[in-house]
Amino acid sequence: MSASVAPTSTTPGEFAPRPGRAPLGRMALAQVWMELKLLLRNGEQVMLSLIVPIGLLVAFTQIPFIEVDGERADFFVPGVLALAVMSSAFTGQAIATGFDRQYGVLKRLGATPLPRSVLLMGKTGAVLVVELLQVALLVLVGVLLGWHPQGDPFSVVLLLAFGTAAFCGLAFLMAGVLRAMATLALANILWFVLLVLGGIMYPLSDLGSAAGAVEALPSAALADGLRDVLQHGHVAPFHDLIVLGLWAVVSLTAAAATFRWE
Known about the structure:
The chain is mostly helical. Helices cover 71% and strands 0% of the residues. It contains ten helices and no strands. Helix 3 packs antiparallel against helix 5.
């Protein structure tokens, strides 16, 4: 006969690992890291977010097919910075989120302890990391092309933050209601339309009677605001911040009300 073993008492938390949900901060950082790795593995998104803006900046500054006042680099670097934010926060974000929803990724993540707010924080955080990389590369290329930046860095950060919020809201709104292929097509079409007609390539004064309507677009507000700061040395224009803030509030509110997770 084997001798019986008397049970021993344990204290709570004595054994590890202990099951349970991780702190929100740790989950957010892990989600940002995962979203960033997925984004950087996608060659199309890397090209759209990094390669295309740099190529357009070089082309705009070196080929005088668009007439601008002053140095070409001083005009086009702020516009391409706005384009870079639009590429990563709107086009890339909308396409990635749309396919995540179609493939059931969002539905499965929604069944885990990961809160949906942290999921969106992870996607937005990955976009912000990519934007930092975009800004660093475009600033370097711009300086090599003869750009002479001016203005208040805080105003630049404020405009980029408002622009990111506005474009992310539009991305979530589109990806949450449309099928993935429709999101892919519409996001790319809007990217091109806003590049050509959204106040990025041309001075708003060149658009004539359409300038008033274009000024209400988030692309024009971001590009025009960045030019006021970086080209003319002004503080962040209140009008452009209001436009971007309204787009952010309306789009994020509409996305929260209409987003379908599956």
